[in-house]
Design a protein that fits this description.
This protein has 282 residues and is of the alpha/beta class. It folds into two domains: 172 residues, Rossmann fold, CATH 3.40.50.620; 95 residues, 2-Layer Sandwich (Pantoate--beta-alanine Ligase, Chain: A,domain 2), CATH 3.30.1300. It contains ten helices and nine strands. The strands form two sheets. The protein has a six-stranded parallel sheet with strand order 1-4-3-2-5-6, sandwiched between helices. The chain has a three-stranded antiparallel sheet with strand order 7-8-9. The N and C termini lie far apart (46 Å). The chain binds adenosine monophosphate.
């Protein structure tokens, strides 16, 4: 497994792979790899001959008051995991390699990013789109894998690929959870034991929404209110948003649900802010 740290090395290696007619699958990550990331790597391996994983904590997707400095960096453990999983190449650039000091061009998605985490974290998805575009341009993979855990990110990346005509297939990978339902996340490690117990409330709220929906409830406000009531029972929970939106446009739903909808939530449990989602399909 080769570990590359410069754009020039990465471009050359990817170029050589393409010349050997290798099909390149790419998995962008911020490191601190867990079973969720592994499922993405495994999916990439099923659809590609060569898997490239990037490990880069992207400063431009963190807001000024967010946890960029505290984001866990565990390179040695990440490399061991990738070796075990048969990853061929790691791209682990320093920030200056991705962003020249006077970088002045960024990407903005102007529709899907208006709601949910885009509304709660201004500029977040501009940072995501910009770094993913830079990585796509450097590696030029045939396919790239993203997790459904970050449902809005997945939709925005698909839109970016369509609108900017990237010849890259985007694969979605299902959310991997702890046995009690908590979605795996690098931020879970910041939960204290009592908060860890409460953190299951996100998945329980989504399960409740699924059950109510299956029982015929189609009113998005009612579904949201029932989720809110459940979450408020967790003493350390502070709701950022609970929202039912159109699954395609991510616009908030006001009328009864007749098309696939996305139920999405972001909740602080103590210090870490956790997100999760599920699809409601009539
Ligand atoms: P991150 O390292 O948090 O930027 O995530 C890298 C990729 O892993 C993204 O496409 C995420 O959606 C995906 N991911 C993170 N957590 C999970 C999970 N629990 N299940 C599936 N995919 C995940």
């Amino acid at each position: 497994m080769h570990i590359l740290t410069t754009q020039a090395q990465m471009q050359q290696a990817a170029h050589d792979l393409r010349r050997q007619s290798r099909r390149i699958g790419f998995v962008p990550t911020m490191g601190n790899l867990h079973e969720g990331h592994l499922s993405l790597i495994r999916l990439a391996r099923q659809h590609a001959d060569t898997v490239i994983v990037s490990i880069f904590v992207n400063p431009t997707q963190f807001g000024p008051t967010e946890d960029y400095a505290a984001y866990p960096r565990t390179l040695d453990a990440d490399l061991a995991i990738c070796r075990r999983e048969g990853v061929h190449l790691i791209y682990h650039p320093p920030v200056t390699e991705i962003y020249p000091p006077d970088a002045s061009v960024t990407l903005a998605e102007t529709s899907l990013a208006q709601t949910l985490c885009g509304a709660a974290r201004p500029g977040h998805f501009n940072g995501v789109c910009t770094v993913v575009a830079i990585l796509f341009n450097t590696i030029r993979p045939h396919l790239a894998v993203f997790g459904q855990k970050d449902a809005q990110q997945l939709r925005i990346i698909r839109r970016m690929v369509r609108d900017l005509a990237y010849p890259i297939q985007i694969l979605a990978s299902p959310t991997i959870r702890e046995p009690d339902g908590l979605a795996l996340s690098s931020r879970n490690r910041h939960l204290t034991p009592p908060q860890r117990a409460q953190a299951t409330v996100l998945h329980r709220a989504l399960t409740l929404a699924q059950a109510n929906f299956a029982a015929g409830q189609r009113d998005p406000r009612q579904l949201e209110n029932d989720m809110r009531q459940l979450i408020q029972q967790a003493p350390d929970a502070r709701i950022d948003y609970i929202s039912i939106v159109d699954d395609q446009t991510l616009a908030p739903l006001t009328a009864p649900i007749t098309r696939p909808a996305l139920a999405a939530l972001a909740v602080w449990i103590g210090q870490p802010r956790l997100i999760d989602n599920t699809t409601l399909t009539p």
